[in-house]
Amino acid sequence: MAQSVPPGDIQTQPNSKIVFNAPYDDKHTYHIKVINSSARRIGYGIKTTNMKRLGVDPPCGVLDPKEAVLLAVSCDAFAFGQEDTNNDRITVEWTNTPDGAAKQFRREWFQGDGMVRRKNLPIEYNP
């Protein structure tokens, strides 16, 4: 019963924040690595506080124990200093996959009563 066991830890590289550097008149892409350091298969999904400016590819997936994935976090061009960027962040959500489930992401894993963990990565914009 995968749902009764809390999801284990993940690691992200970088660990605590994502930094974009000016100029912001063109799209930037920054790669982050998500590593499943637990002993169970997990499903992950990425959320962002600013869908207009920030994108993540792939936005969701499944990781076996000790498996890693490289995510491309993109920041579209915007008027730096004229838009509020204080609350920009991406959030990694993850949960254990049900026992015997195929290695294919399912949104409903996050909608039941199983435990979902979150890790926030704030975004910093250097002028």
Automatic annotation (TrEMBL):
Please give the Pfam families that the UniProt record associates with this protein: Motile_Sperm
Q: State the GO CC annotations.
A: cytoskeleton; pseudopodium
- Keyword Acyltransferase applies: no
Q: What is its main location?
A: other
Q: Which GO terms describe its biological process?
A: oocyte maturation; positive regulation of smooth muscle contraction
InterPro entries per the UniProt record, alphabetical? Ig-like_fold (IPR013783), MSP_dom (IPR000535), Nematode_MSP (IPR051155), PapD-like_sf (IPR008962)
Q: Kindly give the PROSITE patterns that the UniProt entry links to this protein.
A: MSP
Which keywords has UniProt assigned to this entry? Cell projection, Cytoplasm, Cytoskeleton
Q: Does the keyword Cytoplasm apply?
A: yes
Boundaries of each MSP domain copy?
9-126
Q: What does this protein do?
A: Central component in molecular interactions underlying sperm crawling. Forms an extensive filament system that extends from sperm villipoda, along the leading edge of the pseudopod.
Q: What is the name listed in the Swiss-Prot or TrEMBL entry for this protein?
A: Major sperm protein
